[in-house]
Design a protein that fits this description.
single chain, alpha+beta, Ribosomal Protein S5, domain 2, seven-stranded mixed beta sheet, binds cytidine-5'-monophosphate
């Protein structure tokens, strides 16, 4: 049996850092939005566990989140970790788009089907949270609020479909380095629920822009071509612009100017929860 599935990317429409926690992580209040930029994964029956990645710059060793997800799922289910996994990388690593976390989530879904585990989503989300703070979101998709480390997911109503311009600079941003630069105070245990609207804010943005000044140039360029919202995604290095539809996003992307040399630009749609569940769910292939 061979199963295939797509791992989608995310942007953070809002990201509040509430403070540093005793466990070294930061307490967050964030809004994730799924977007249509995808990695492709394939899962085949095999005698052993193996991973082939088409992009040589992506480490395919035991530290790869796909292999860690496979081993952790097998361990939890009490089965042997046996599968030949193929990964076609399209989401840049270190881009703030959650590519590695999404690959891990799709691996949990794919292997759970390949091994006939029938594991409930809540169990996979629990396993996912141990692999990375963003992993549970990718089991839900669409729009969702993430609290805790970002791993506690509450689905939000889908956005009307919008167009997104992703500007991916030619350098990655290391998440721990950006958090360190931020130097957030200890979390006092409070969360502000005063406003009902979505704060147009990413608290990691000033720290990331201090570390990588070209990020601010990109953000201003996106605002300059009329983005409804222009923000850093996660800890970067991707900066996204939100537009009313795909046509407006494509038109704005053509007018972008003065980006860091080597930046990649992609115009993608937002994805609803249903679209995410359908595309990331494993299906049989020849
Ligand atoms: O959970 P994940 O492995 O994605 O986190 C990567 C790193 O990002 C952590 O080791 C930590 O330095 C930082 N992080 C954090 N607070 C969070 C999520 C991530 O400090 N809520």
């Amino acid at each position: 049996m061979r199963l295939v599935a797509e791992a989608f990317a995310k942007v953070n429409r809002s990201l509040l850092v509430l403070g540093r926690r005793p466990d070294g992580f930061h307490e967050l209040d964030t809004v994730f939005q799924a977007v249509g930029l995808t990695d492709r994964l394939a899962f085949e029956e095999s005698d052993a566990l193996s991973l082939r990645v088409d992009d040589p710059s992506v480490p395919a060793g035991p530290e790869n989140l796909v292999l860690r997800a496979a081993r952790l799922l097998a361990e939890e289910a009490g089965v042997k970790a046996r599968a030949a996994i193929g990964l076609e990388k399209r989401i840049p690593s270190g881009g703030g788009l959650g590519g590695g976390s999404s690959d891990a989530a799709v691996t949990l879904l794919g292997l759970s089907a390949l091994w006939g585990l029938d594991a409930p989503l809540e169990t996979l989300a629990e396993i996912g949270a141990r692999l990375g703070s963003d992993v549970p979101f990718f089991l839900f998709g669409g729009s969702a609020r993430g609290t805790g480390r970002g791993e506690r997911i509450a689905p939000l109503p889908d956005l009307p479909p919008k167009g997104v311009v992703l500007v991916m600079p030619p350098f990655p941003a290391a998440t721990p380095e950006v958090f360190r630069r931020l130097g957030a105070p200890e979390w006092d245990g409070r969360r502000d629920d005063a406003g009902s609207g979505l704060p147009d804010r990413n608290d990691l943005e000033p720290a990331a822009e201090a570390l990588f000044p070209p990020l601010r140039v990109v953000r201003e360029a996106l605002a300059g071509v009329g983005a409804e919202q222009a923000r850093l995604s996660g800890s970067g290095s991707t900066v996204f612009g939100l537009f009313p539809d795909l046509a407006a996003a494509a038109e704005a992307a053509r007018r972008l100017d003065g980006l860091p040399v080597g930046s990649a630009i992609r115009v993608v749609p937002t994805w609803t929860r249903e679209e995410c569940r359908f595309r990331s769910g494993p299906r049989r292939s020849e």
